[in-house]
Amino acid sequence: MKILVAVKRVIDYNVKVRVKADKTNVDLANVKMAMNPFCEIAVEEAVRLKEKGVASEIIVISIGAKQCQEQIRTALALGADRGIHIETEGTPDSLSVAKLLAKVVAEEQPGLVILGKQAIDSDNNQTGQMLAALLDRPQATFASEVVVAADKVSVKREIDGGLQTIEVDLPAIITADLRLNEPRYASLPNIMKAKRKPLDVKTPEELGVVLSNNITLVSVEPPADRKAGIKVSSVAELVDKLKNEAKVLS
Amino acid sequence: MDFELNEDQIAFSDMARAFAQKEMEPHAAKWDQEQIFPVDVLQKAGELGFCGLYSPEDVGGLGLGRLDSSIIFEQLAMGCTSTTAFITIHNMATWMIADFSNEETRQHWCPDLTAGQKLASYCLTEPNAGSDAASLKTTARKEGDSYVLNGSKIFISGAGATDVLVVMARTGEDGPKGISAFAIDAKAAGISYGRKEEKMGWNSQPTRLITFEDAKIPASCLMGNEGDGFKIAMMGLDGGRINIATCSIGTAQAALNHAIQYMGERKQFGRTLENFQALQFKIATMNTELVAARQMVRLAASKLDHKHADRSTYCAMAKRFATDVGFNVCDEALQIFGGYGYIKEYPLERYVRDSRVHRILEGTNEIMNVIIARRLLLKDAADIL
Ligand SMILES: Cc1cc2nc3c(=O)[nH]c(=O)nc-3n(C[C@H](O)[C@H](O)[C@H](O)COP(=O)(O)OP(=O)(O)OC[C@H]3O[C@@H](n4cnc5c(N)ncnc54)[C@H](O)[C@@H]3O)c2cc1C
């Protein structure tokens, strides 16, 4: 079985996000970029499935500017076999990404597509779901455990207030949650080997996809500065404040 | 000429930074305080390739250049100075065995050393031969198919916890030409270890005295030929000096990062510290000098990679400059933290303690000046460009 993993280049999670002075977007000048952490978890899961003998080949795909190839190389260093870069200007919206992925799925026929549950930059949480809808395939989102058995996959999902286990038929779409696994480090020799793994570059035109432009970014505001806290003198005062001011206790 | 990191170097340093942030930084204070030598983390580092960066590939090394290695070590040093410094010494000793030992010895030690499964120490300094290393007194007497060692080595990093010792000992006349180098099983009969030294810094690695009393080792332990030892020791140190200088750069960068962040948080006189121009100028100077030092280290590494005739001079200049600048940056960062910088809850005092020794070991900074001046005073030699 082939596994297709989609990875997104985003601002590094360690970086303090700055908003541009004109509030048109987050300032990405002089900012460290990295693979979206949820995508890293998706890659790790695919690699583990390959190590278990469930998967035979891992294809990693990223969509965006040329620099996305850095993240594809990272995934190749982590254990993916080959990469596909769909070069676009700017960052296409979720639906466009899902349409592009759907074309690649049609070409490659993977048994599983694994994505991160969301990207930490735009926090949309919709690409995986849209892809499943476009392909009319089952989806298992927020995965915290994935077990493949013959033509089915059983997925433990993180839902509000607990865990839910569902079983879906293959081929299927899975989105990875935080606790699915802890990604490994790419070893230095594997980083060197990744350079020699194949990486195809395609364009949306070649795939016959017209990028939609359904969303306009109106403005970006930084969150309000946190106000300094106060010290309470006793547990009784704290409980009182939690009850009457914060109203989180009743 | 291009001063930009290439794609590989970016990928290497990203990985090294992630490793340092997750596997070293959270534990560095504990390792320091409780004097823990984190052998498990060294093994993990070995699995990822950090233990044989510039050793050749046929013994499991990565065959990288010194410039690439410096870029990687710098990121590691941001997580834990002392542990990274040991990793660099291990890399140096491993490379020496891989480059100068016979095939049998290389294959015996190097695959485990490059994998981080075994560890190596470098043994040059003696109680009465520090800066004047060529006056060392430890002897290696040839007896049939063996050498018999007598003498002692002081301040040996890792000693007592390492598996193989690269030992410089006298096989012939007085002075550098009578010295030979050996790769010796650290557990051989006749080798004993002193108590762990109590140190100002570098507490995540043991430092001990080693005594050789009629320690009999196979003649095949000899590295190169008899009489090559001092040359081999100095070739190891060229790279070692770049490594130690790099550890200063990484530590100083970590200190500066902390200081800049703190300036945005700490308020006095109704304003955060970053509003005071005196402190703005301080960090501007710290960063400027740090960048200069980093470039100097990378220049020396590049000279070594290209086997430039003046590589040793460049390594000496880089070591002198970067370890002085690195220490000053750590000290100034501590100053920006005020009293909190002096308290162990913050890493600043550890940075100062750990980076202090970089100005002393692998040749003191005074000895670096001796090396640089000797080259400058060479009659009729080319300019150093
Ligand atoms: C924590 C630690 C770890 C170490 N690890 C190792 C190791 O793993 N392997 C190893 O072999 N060694 C190691 N060393 C030893 C280190 O390399 C020596 O301490 C160093 O070379 C200086 O030698 P010394 O201590 O004998 O000082 P000395 O040589 O006695 O020097 C004393 C002072 O005199 C100055 N001086 C000496 N000669 C001159 C001169 N000609 N001109 C101007 N000034 C001069 C020196 O710069 C210094 O300031 C370690 C030391 C420490 C502290």
Automatic annotation (TrEMBL), chain A:
It comes from the Bacteria. GO terms for biological process: carboxylic acid catabolic process. Pfam families: ETF. Keywords: Electron transport, Transport. SUPFAM superfamilies: Adenine nucleotide alpha hydrolases-like. Residues 23-211 form the Electron transfer flavoprotein alpha/beta-subunit N-terminal domain. CDD domains: ETF_beta. Its cofactor is AMP. GO terms for molecular function: electron transfer activity. Belongs to the ETF beta-subunit/FixA family. PANTHER family: ELECTRON TRANSFER FLAVOPROTEIN BETA-SUBUNIT (PTHR21294), ELECTRON TRANSFER FLAVOPROTEIN SUBUNIT BETA (PTHR21294:SF8). The electron transfer flavoprotein serves as a specific electron acceptor for other dehydrogenases. It transfers the electrons to the main respiratory chain via ETF-ubiquinone oxidoreductase (ETF dehydrogenase). Heterodimer of an alpha and a beta subunit. This is Electron transfer flavoprotein subunit beta. It comes from Neptunomonas antarctica. The lineage of its organism: Bacteria, Pseudomonadati, Pseudomonadota, Gammaproteobacteria, Oceanospirillales.
TrEMBL record, chain B:
Residues 122-214 form the Acyl-CoA oxidase/dehydrogenase middle domain. Belongs to the acyl-CoA dehydrogenase family. Its cofactor is FAD. GO terms for biological process: branched-chain amino acid catabolic process. It comes from the Bacteria. Keywords: Branched-chain amino acid catabolism, FAD, Flavoprotein, Oxidoreductase. One of its GO terms (molecular function) is flavin adenine dinucleotide binding. Residues 6-116 form the Acyl-CoA dehydrogenase/oxidase N-terminal domain. This is Acyl-CoA dehydrogenase. The lineage of its organism: Bacteria, Pseudomonadati, Pseudomonadota, Gammaproteobacteria, Oceanospirillales. Transmembrane segments: none annotated.
